[in-house]
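Write out the 3D structure for:
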Amino acid sequence: MIRGTGITIYIHKKEDHTHILRQFQSDATSQSRARGISADTTDNPGNYGSPRHQNSAWEHHPSKSIKHKKKDSKPAHRGYANYGTTKRDLGSSNVLITQHFSAKVVTPGEELSLQCTATADRPPRFIWERDGVVISSNTDQRYTLGQMMSPTGVGVVSQLNISRSRVEDGGLYACIAFESESSTGHSARIDVFGPPYIRTLPPIKVQSGEPLKLRCPFYGYPISKLEWEHKGKKIISSTLPQHSRYKRTYATTSNNSKNTRRKRKKRQLFESGEDGVLNIAKVVKEGNGDTYTCIVYSPSGEMARRSFEIQVVEAPELDELRVGTGLKEGQIVQITCNIISGDPPIYFSWLKDGKKLPASLKITERSSELFSVLIIKRVSLEHCGKYTCIATNHVGKVNQTADLYINVAPKWIEEPTNTSLLLGQRGIVYCNANGYPTPQIHWMKRDATLGIWRPVLDLAGGGVISYPNGTLIIEVVSLSDEGMYACNVENGVGDALNKNLWISVNKPVHFETVGANLTTKMGLPVTLICKPLGDNPIRVKWSLDGKPVDFTTSRLTISETMTHNGLNSIININYVESRDGGTYECRASNPYGVAAFNVHLDILEPPTPPLDLQLDTVSSNSAKLSWRDTLSAHVQYYTMQYTANDFMMWDSAKSINITRQDNDVRQSIELRDLQPAMDYRVRVASGNQVDLSPYTQPVHFSTQQEAPSSTPLGVQVQQTDNPGELVVSWLPPPRETHNGPLQGYHVKAVPRMSGDSVPNDTQTKMVKVMTRKGKQETTLSGLLKNMRYAVSVSAFNSAGNGPFSLPVYQTTREGAPEIPPSGVECRGVSSSSLRVAWQPITAQGTSLLGYSVYFSTEDGPWQNISSPHTELYLQALLKYTNYTVKVAGFSNYGLGPFSYPIVCTTLQDVPGPPSAIKVLVSSPTSLIVSWKRPDQPNGDITHYTVYVKPVSSTSSPQNYRVEASLESSLRQLTFPVTGLSTGRQYEVFVRAHTAVGEGVPSNRVHIELTAKVVAGVSSLGGRVWAGAGRALRLWCACAGAPPPRTVWYHNHNIITHHPRYTRNHDDSLLITNIDQSLSGNYTCLAKNLYGSDSVSYEVSVLPTPEPPSLRVTSHKNAIHLQWDTPRKVGGKSQKISYNLTWKEANGSWQDAWSSKGTTPQDLQEYTLQGLKCGTKYSLRMTAVNSVGSSQPTYVDATTLGGVPISPTSTEWFWSNATHVYIQLSGWDDNGCEITRFDVEYKEYGGKIWRKAENRLPQLDQVWSHYVPTSLLNQPNSFVLAELSPAQWYYIRVSAENAAGVSTATYSYATTTVQGESIGLPSDFLDLNMLVIICSSILLMICSLTCVYILVKRHNHQHLTEYRNSLTAECKSERSNVTVNTPQSAPADINSRVYSTPVHLTAENKHELYEISPYAQFAIGFRTFGHVDNQEVPSRIHLPGNSKSRSVQGTPP
C-alpha cells in the first residue's frame, strides 16, 4: 500500500484508443469510510469502472505490458469508487520489465507462482494487484510477496506465491514497477477451475459528459459467455475464449443481429469491448443512479450475476475572488471564494504565492458548503501577494487567483550616518528603506563651490555606483570625494524620507617606492633614509633582518623630521662593519594604515672560499661541478683551477674565470674537452673588487670511458684441421685510443657467398673474446664449410664497441657431407643381384667425391661398395634374401650421414636339396619317407615331390606330390608310400619346388621290403632351439611290427617322472618351462623283436637377452649411445634388436628408434639427434630377441650447454637522455644459442614493471654525437625508448635458450639532455651491507653475553667444590653419587647450570613442572633484545650473494 496522496495513472494505448486508469489509496481506512466503503472488505472495487477516456484498470489480454510516467495535471472526474485521484499521462519511462508471467489456467489446490523482473536507473519497487485491488500481506495468509535483486546483478525480481489456490484466486493480475517519477506494468489473467462468480463493487462515480468503461470482475473457469443488462434489457453479449473441450456454439437470428446493429449505430450508447468490457460513450446527469448488471455463464450452465450502480457527479465551478480596493495598512481585509455550480461534498484550500498560508501572517479561514473566506484583521506589507482558492470534489478540482496589495509609506531600514573613508580604498555607504510601492532612493552631494545640491553620479565622473537598495559604492576613494551628502527616499505614499551626512577622507601611511639597495665597503660611513607619507600622527620603527636596530652604540644615530605631507626618518652609521649588512625595514603607521620600506645594505669585504664544492655529473669528455656562495661577503666572480694528475703543480694548472649568477642558489660550470678515462682534480676560489679568497680543497674525479676509437692491429686469420673452423689472432689497438680499460673484443665473420653482392647477415658469426696481455687469439667454430669469410675485429670497453678492423678473408676447410642422399630406392634384379639408386647431394661446403653403399643381410656383417654415380648394382648376393641398404656421400674429409635404411629382397630361384631324408619300412608292402626343408630354399617352397622306383627297374620312378603346408613344427615332412612288393629293393629321393621350378634331388636312399618289420623312428633329429620359459615338443614317430616300445634319454639318462616332462600317447616328449638345466642331448629309442632305431635332438635353450650396458656421450643437440655386443649362445651370435625411448625431465616417454630390420648386428651405437641444448634427458633401452625382451636399462644424460650467463655489471649498457642501449652480445649463451630476450624496466622507486619493445632509434644528430654508428649497427642489440632524462631505472633482462631462462636486474640511468651522467640517488643504500653490519653487532652482543655467563659459572663452581669438600665425610653417600667434576653438577639446590635454553614444543609448552630440589635443569637467560627462554643464536648467517655485482641492484 503506498502512503501519500491518492494517485490516478492514465495510460493511452494506441491500438484500441483506450486509456487505463490506476489508483493507489493513501489511507484506506479514513478515505474509504468517508466515501462509504468499508475499510475491512476484501472485495474492493479496484478499477472496474472509469471514464472512457481514462479506461478501466489493466485491460485484459493474455499478456500485456504497459508503461507510464507520472505527470501532474488538473484533477479528473470520478468514474467509479470514491477515491481521490491524480491524472498521469503515458510518457517515456526509464523502467523496463525484462521478464514477466503469462496467462495460465490452474486447478484448485495447485501452487501458483508469478514473477516479474524490472530494470531501472535505481532498483525499482513493485506492487501487485488482482482485479485492480492492491495485494498485501494482509490480503490472505496464502499470499506471499517477495522482492530481491536479480541473480545476474541486473534488475529486481518480484514474486507472488499463492499456496493451495482456490477458485476465488482467479482474476486479472498485474505487477507494477515504480522508480522515481516513472512506472511500468504488466497484466495477465490467471483462471482457476471452478464455478463462476462476480466480485462486488461500490457505486461508481463519474463526471457528467465523460465516457465510461465497465469491466466485469468475474472469476471461475471456464466462462463461455458474458452479458450486460441495463434496465432489464440485454445490451451486450460476448463469447469469451475458453478451453477446447468446453467450446459451444451460440446462434442468433440474423434479424436480431441486424436490429441490434442498427440500434447501436443509431444510439451509440453502448459498445462491446474486448473480453466483455462495457463502453458507454457519454454519461449524462439523467443517468445518475442507473444500474448495469454483468452476467457470466459457464459451459455447464452455471450462472453468476452482479449489478453496479453509476453515480453521475458535476465538477465544481468558482466565481471570481472578491478583494477590496484602495486598502491601507492596518485595515481589515476579506477575500471571498464562492461556488457557482458543482455537486457536494466540496473541499476548499488556499495558497499564497503558490504556497500554503504561513501561520506567522495570522490569517483566519472560514468555510461552508458553498463558499470560503479569508479574514486579515490588520493588513500589513507582509500580507501582499497572490492568493489562490482551490475547490475539489470527487471528480474535479478548480482554482481562482487574485492579487492583494496595500499602500505603505517608506520607512528606514538602514538610516545613513556620517562616515569616514580611506584614501585609495573602496568606500561603501548604506541607505535603505521599504514601503509599497517600492520606494525610489536618490543620492545627492552639495557642491562646495556653487553651494547647491547635485546628483552624486553627475559630480563623480565615473567610479561611483548607486544600487536600487540605496547602497552607494565608490570604487577608489579620492580626496575630492569628501563632502556633504544627502539620501532621499520616496514612493508617492506619505512623506518622503531625507537624511544629510558628512563623508570624510583619511590618508593612510604609504611610501612612494617599495625599497632601495645600497652597497658600501667595510669601514665607510653610510646613511639610510625613510620617507613615509600620510596623515599625522606617524610612528616609525626600524629593524634589521627582523630584529629591532640597536641604537645604543655610538656608531648608529637616528633623526626624524616632520614634513607637510609626512615624516623623514634617517639612520647614520659612522663606519660599517660586516654585521651591519642585511635588510633594514622602516615600518611606518598612523591611525589609518601601516606600510613598510626596505633598504638592503651590502657590505663589500674579501670573500671567503665557496662552500660544498661537488661533482654533479661527469661524462667521457666533460664534467659539471657546482658550489654554494659564502654568506659573509659579496662575490662577483669565481676562479677555478684544474689539472690532469696529482703530479702537476697548481701553478701550471688551467684556470677559468666564472661570472657569478645572482639568481642561482648554486653556482655551476661545465668543464669540456677533457680526456676520457682520465683522473682530474679541481679547486675554486671566490673573488670581488676587494680580493680573491683562498682556494677550496681539491675535488678528485675520473672522466667516464668512451668506446675505443681505433681498431685492433695485425689481424690474421688461418685455417685449422677441422672443417668450418678459423683461428683469428690480433694485437690490441694503440694505448691512447683505448679510452678506458679494454674488456674484450668482438670477432665477426661474414660469409661471402658467390653471387651475393652484399654480405649475408643471416650467416654472420660473432663471438666475444675476453682481453688478455699480449697477443689475442680465438677460434671460430661452427662456420660454414668450404666458405670464404670476411673476418674483422673490434675492441670494446664498458662504454661500448670500437670500430671494426678492415676485413681479412680466409676460406674454411671443407668437411664431410652434412646431409644424406635422398630418394634412395632398391629393387631385385635377379636372384643374386639388386639395383640401388638415389638422388645426388647438392649441399655446399663439400667437394663430393662419390657415394658409399652399405648393405647387409639380417644376420651378416655390413659390406660396402663405393661409386661416383647415383646408381649401383650389387652382385653375388644370396638368393631370395632380405638386404638392408643405406647410402652416404663422402669427400676427402670423410663419410657423411647415411640415408634412412631400406630393405629389399633378391628374386627367387630353384631350391636346393632337402637337408636330410630317412626311409623306414612300415609294413611288408609300404614305406615311410621323412625329410627336412632345404637349407637353401631360394624362394617360397610350394610343394615337394617324392620319387620311388625299384632299384632293378629302368623305368621312370613313381612320384607323389606333397604340399609344403604339411611341415611340422620341426620343419620336417613325412609321407607314406604303399602298394609296394615285398622282398624287392627300392630307391627313394625327394625334390623341392618353388615358383621358379623343381630343385636338386635329395640323397638317394635304397631300402628293401621284408616280412619282418624292424622297429624304426621316422622323426628326424638335429639341433633344436627353444626359448627359456617356453614349451618344447620332441617328436618320436615309430613304425614296426610288432609295434615298438620307446624310451627317452636326456644326456644318456632315462627320463622318468619329472614335473616338466610329459610323455604323450604318440611317444612325443613335451618339455614345459624349459631352462638351461634342461638343455642337452635328447634321444628316443624304439625297440621291438626284430631290432631298434633311435632319433637324437640337440636342444639349446635361448635365454632372454641381457639388459644392454649403455655408455653415453653428450653433445650440444645430440646424445651418442654405445653398448656391448651381446654374447654368443652355443657359439652362435644372437639375433637381437633394440628399442630406445626417451623423455625430458618431467615429460612423457617418446619412441626414438628401433633396430628391427634396419640395423646389422655389429652396429652397437646410435645417436639421438634433434635434442634441446643443455637439457636433461632420461633414456630407456631394451634388447629383444625371439624369446622376449630384456629388463630396460635406464640412464640420465644432459646435453652440453646451460642457461645463459648474464653479465655481472653494466659494461654492456649505454644511454643518452631518452634511450638506454643494451648490447645483448654481453650475455654468454653458455653453449646453447639464445632464442629470446625479454627486457622490462621501471623507474627507481616504482612498483610496476613495464615490458619494453626493442626500438632502434634513427641515427640522427643527437645519437651520432654520443655514440658511434657502429655501436647501433651491432646485431643482438636492444634499445629502450621514450625514457625520462636524468632518471635512474631498474632494468630486468631475461635471456632464454633451450636450457632455461636466466634473469638479471641492473640499475642504470639516462643522461641529462646535454648528455651528462648523473650520480646515484640519495637513498641508494646497499641492503646487503646493512644486513651484514646489523648481524655483526648482534653476534658481538651474544658473544659477550656468553663469555660473561661462563665466567660467572666458573666462579660459582669453584665455590661449590670447596663447600662440598668440607662436608664430604657427612655426606659420603651423596658424594659417591655426585662427582664434583665440571661434567656433573652438584646437588645443592642453589646451584644452577646455565646452558642453551630448551624450546618447548606445541604440546608441552603450556605444561607446568614441579622442580625437584636435586634436579639439574636449564634456566633461560635474558639479554638485551631477547625474550626469556628464547633460543640463543649459535651461528649467525650473514646474507650475501654468491655472485656479487657492483652496480647490479635489487628493486625494492
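The longest strand covers residues 593-604.
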